[in-house]
Amino acid sequence: MVDSSSTEKLNIVCRINNIQNIDGFNDINIYRVNKKGIVEHLATMQPRYSDSPGYQRPALVQSSSTMQVVGVYSDKNPTLGISVPVASLTCNDGLMYNCSLVYDQREGSSLLVTKMSSVARNLTVSVQPKDVDFKAFNQSALFPMEIQSDIGTATNMAHFMIGQVVKLTCKANLGTRSNGLIYWRKSNIVTGSGMANYIPNNNEREEGQVVTNGCQFEKTDSIMYNMTDQDAIRTSSNPLQFQCYISVPGSNLALPDTTAKNFFIKVHDVNDPTTVGLKTAGRDNVTLISGVVVGTLVALNLLVALVLLMRKYRIRCNIEERTPEPETFNTTLSNFSGLWLRPVGYYENTRVLLWRVIPPILISIGTIGNGMTIFVLLRQKKMTSTAVILFALALSDTLMLFSALLPKWMLYTWGVDIRMLSNPECKAIVYLTYCSTHLSSWLIVAFTLERTACVLFPHKVRLGCSPRNAGFIIVTIVLAVVGINIILRVIVERNRYKGSKCSAPTKEYNDLFYYVYGWVDFTLTFEAPFPLLLICNDIIVVQLARSRSRRKRMNISGQARDTRPLSILMITLCVL
Asked: For residues 132 and 258, is the Cβ–Cβ distance under 8 A?
């Protein structure tokens, strides 16, 4: 049995046992067979060759930081062994060890016969559970955030509000005890009564399976806990405390202190004036994202005002206008400007200037923001349904930026229409533009529906809103959008009807695009998503108002998860 705190040593010794008429030994050796089946020579001793290892004394064949050689030299009764600290042993040391002896035995009065003898033994190493890796997550943040390891101690407790949810994860190293279990304790509400076993509900616990890690076993167990009003009235000498620890059924050996970890929480009431300004994990995320959104909108408004101001003082753009030749497909800006009836003079110059200035700002901010979103989501060890939808939305929005804005910006800036480079490129850009637009609209709908479910069913939402279900919904939306817009691959070509470019090639296709598909586009982009977003956001607002009113009447903060900051932010984004 391996004990990491032991100061004892394990000795594996080879000695001669009941060999009659032995005249002397030639050599004695210790071997072992490693996990790969390779024989390793550990120690040796021999009486004849002074320039070889082990001459008349025990010697290690290879130097080792933990292994030492032991033994006594004797012509007829030698002993050879190795000594290893018990604390340094692992289950990988449970191997087959072999003692080999070559000796001379006298038969009769003068005949010497050289013989060899060997014996093998299996060493069984049993490793006790060693330690646990404890992590805590604030599930009430915009994204589940891991709490720093130095927070949650008795001197630096984690701070939570009533209604917020914490996830505690305990990863145990069970050693060679595959039957090891993880148990949880929770401090009693009565001061001085110690801790009691805590058994959460089935939907609040994620009990992992025992997995192998080399020759040892590991197990991970997680629980979710919703802060209650009773937790907020605990005294400073009796805070909310959780403990996870390892237990081995049928074993009476004491486990080290590292097999138990504690987490301390100070729960606050949001109606308590002393909690004003208190920061809890996750709220900073909402504030940061809100600031980024508001700051971006303000910057765009200032930019538009600057452009209008420049036009007021007649800082004009030199834009050459002339009618294109109908039989050619030159992709310059001068040809492009004569295809449709457009404003002239001041308004035309302003429109072109906005197309040159606004798209690169939107593309830059959108690409960086979506890239950061994807980076943060991919760093999570376990994706939630919200994270899965936001991941897909970030990809869709990025695709829309590059398929819709980038070609127009290049056209107005350099006079090059990349849609006219080839017929497949024309079809692909138009197809991706409409698909990404529709996909983004319906992903926002899916996200809002999930937020609505969180408000209506805060305790059951984790059962239905799983990452797997979110992935299934996303795949369904993608297949529907791709299938509906496949008609664009047929009715859009580079050679246009009535001289237009990258549009319908015939009058029939032109009527189909503008009078039929136009309504399909309007329905998928606005008409269908808008009422769903309106209804869901109304439900969220009403539920939050009812919850706030109920808490005021009862003078408590309730036990529901505090979704107000996130919900308010998401409503704002939907409106924008």
From this structure: yes
